[in-house]
What we know:
311 residues; alpha/beta; Dihydrodipicolinate Reductase, domain 2; 2 domains; seven-stranded mixed β-sheet; six-stranded parallel β-sheet; 11 helices; 38% helix
Amino acid sequence: MTPPVRVTVLGLGLAGGRIHVPTLQRLPQAKLVALCDPDPVRRAGSWPAPVFAAWQDALEVSADAVVVATTPETHAELTAAAVSLGRHVYVEKPMAATVAEGVALKHAAAAAGIVLQVGFAYRFHPLWRSVRRLLDRGWLEPRMVARAQFTTPGGEGRREPVFDVACHHLDLVSWLTEQRALEVQVSDGGAVGARWPCAAQLLGRYQVGPPTDVVTLSDGRRQVTVDRLRGWRLRGRPSPPVPALVLARLARSGMEVSFTRALAVFLAAVRGGDGVIDGAAGPADGIAAIAIIDALRRSVVTGLPEPVAMV
Length: 311
């Protein structure tokens, strides 16, 4: 019997404490061995593994993998430290603050034979996987327009929606089209536009508000709508409901299956690849996301479309 993957989680805020730790507890292939957060309030209470204030102390505990869910400016340093110890890493986005840091992490992980997965978990949502199948079958063409609305509550662990959540949709369109975005533009009211070489476009609005994540994709012939938070099937095409989503909605559990599937894929890769599902975001995707965020920041200043660096 294959032993569980021993996992250390760095950061016990919104992502680490409220999502990754409970998710890993539910996965039998994982065993939490150490947790870390510098905030004594977060460290207080009942946790399923020893809790440390310093990440250096947490990494001294023998482990196979590390989940980095700290503040974004620390991601590169902690990921590099974990890789240097031979630990596989699941790092929340952005994987680093700069493209140069991301490239360095990519090379270090490759040289060490380390699994480095970036936390674009929505690629594993059943409805987005269904959209990918529609593209693979030719029912929907890559030359499409994605009209999106993504609102998220403000508060702890959340930054400006244009930078914090728009990158999810930008990553999803890049994953669907298998292309990198050419340029992005930020306008008033959290509006973001982007285009890809295949003529795909994203027209989205990203604001603080009651949780909403709805995207309608149209190629001029056919149209489907993904409601990640409330939908249990694609709208616009006859398709069966997704049982896991139906149960989650009926139970009002708030369960986000994307994170469970993303972490399960990561653990499978760490254990040797059995059952790995295609589509996980790797270092190259993480670097592309950093380049997109850089372009978004430039566009906020200029108000103009800004090219995304090709790296």
